[in-house]
């Protein structure tokens, strides 16, 4: 018996070695980090990550050296993942979140600091949403006013495609950050999304508590790329994978952006989503947009509700921007009026029976015909 114990004592470190490196073993999910915003009450924020199967994970929320709560779970064998749901928290902070993995007598501890509780919004779509703060009217003033909005935190997913649904983001362009002139105006059509930022800034001015903004968008992309296979099937979208269009210059294969840029976020507890997209469908399944858009909303709501263990509301608010006008030189029969109509599931208004708890920003009058970006700012309608 003593000999067996001695052998196990020698072999155990060799067995555990593959799991104990920081990059291959215990870690938070990609979007959990310093300066993040977690969803406030009445929902509970989800904290999750990866570890050694069977290990115990203890998550602790602290403030000023005081322990606010502890949650204990274990790492699932089939997915190598762990998850806890924090008790609902009032808006505010900062807090520190620590996670400790215990396995085979070894402890590994991770921590993230300056964590706030508030409302978390996901911003997605095509170039309309991707357009950067540095490209808008009054950009200089906007970029110089970041000191007043240090409780509006921003996060940007990288442009990635995948053939299958990913459980976590493969890459991140901008980890959770406090806003600065540099990260708000990083580059044309790079981080940070102007529509997302202006929306979040307005919410902060109105609500006076922290706001978290998660930007995941890609210019020139059709709705099919952002839709799951099941929602496309429900709308009878044809199986052909490509149709030429002047408005498509990003990924156009079905579901590849849903798989890589939306599904990896589905465990996150959200307050809501805003969306700005449509012109890439002028010549791609336009007549189905009255189904594919409501189906996307329904599918995203169901997926985030289930992924967060019911913490994200089943019918969370979903807002979208109506397509703006275009330059006079563009063919008047350009399909834009049809897309605008289909954006409301052919009701002409929201919310409606097919699109409950949705809201729309009317943008018909926002075209800047002198924009240095040509027709783009007419499509974008950002001021």
TrEMBL record:
Protein's UniProt name: Sialate O-acetylesterase
Q: Which organism is it from?
A: Hipposideros armiger
GO biological process, alphabetically ordered? carbohydrate metabolic process
User: Which PANTHER family does the record match to this protein?
Assistant: SIALATE O-ACETYLESTERASE
Domain of life, source organism: Eukaryota
Keywords assigned: Hydrolase, Signal
List the InterPro entries hit by this protein, alphabetically: SASA, SGNH_hydro_sf, SIAE
Domain Sialate O-acetylesterase: start-end pairs: 119-306
The keyword ATP-binding belongs to this UniProt entry's keyword annotation: no
């Amino acid at each position: 018996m003593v000999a067996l114990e001695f052998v196990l004592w020698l072999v155990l470190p060799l067995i555990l070695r593959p799991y104990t490196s920081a990059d291959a073993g215990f870690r938070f999910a990609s979007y959990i980090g310093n300066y993040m915003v977690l969803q406030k009450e009445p929902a509970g924020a989800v904290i999750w990550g990866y570890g050694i199967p069977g290990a115990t994970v203890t998550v602790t929320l602290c403030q000023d050296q005081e322990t606010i709560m502890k949650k204990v779970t274990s790492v699932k064998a089939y997915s190598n993942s762990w998850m806890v749901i924090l008790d609902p928290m009032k808006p505010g902070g900062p807090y520190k979140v620590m996670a400790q993995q215990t396995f085979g007598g070894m402890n590994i501890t991770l921590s993230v600091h300056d964590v706030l509780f508030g409302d978390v919004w996901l911003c997605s779509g095509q170039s309309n949403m991707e357009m950067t703060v540095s490209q808008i009217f009054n950009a200089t003033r906007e970029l110089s006013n970041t000191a007043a909005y240090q409780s509006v935190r921003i996060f940007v997913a990288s442009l990635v495609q995948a053939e299958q649904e990913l459980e976590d983001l493969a890459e991140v362009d901008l980890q959770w950050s406090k806003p600065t002139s540099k990260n708000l105006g990083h580059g044309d059509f790079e981080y940070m999304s102007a529509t997302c930022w202006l929306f979040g800034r307005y919410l902060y001015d109105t609500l006076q508590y922290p706001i978290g903004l998660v930007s995941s968008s890609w210019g020139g992309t059709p709705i099919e790329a952002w839709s799951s296979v099941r929602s496309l099937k429900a709308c009878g979208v044809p199986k052909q994978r490509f149709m030429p269009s002047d408005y498509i210059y990003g990924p156009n294969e079905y579901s590849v952006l849903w798989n890589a840029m939306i599904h990896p976020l589905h465990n996150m507890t959200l307050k809501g989503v805003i969306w700005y997209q449509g012109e890439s469908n002028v010549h791609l399944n336009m007549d189905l947009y009255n189904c594919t858009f409501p189906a996307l909303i329904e599918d995203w709501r169901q997926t985030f509700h289930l992924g967060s263990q019911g913490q994200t509301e089943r019918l969370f608010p979903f807002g979208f921007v109506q397509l703006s006008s275009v330059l006079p030189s563009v063919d008047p029969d350009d399909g834009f009026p049809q897309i605008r109509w289909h954006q409301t599931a052919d009701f002409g208004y929201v919310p409606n029976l097919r699109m409950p708890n949705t809201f729309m920003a009317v943008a018909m009058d926002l075209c800047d015909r002198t924009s240095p970006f040509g027709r783009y700012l007419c499509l974008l309608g950002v001021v």
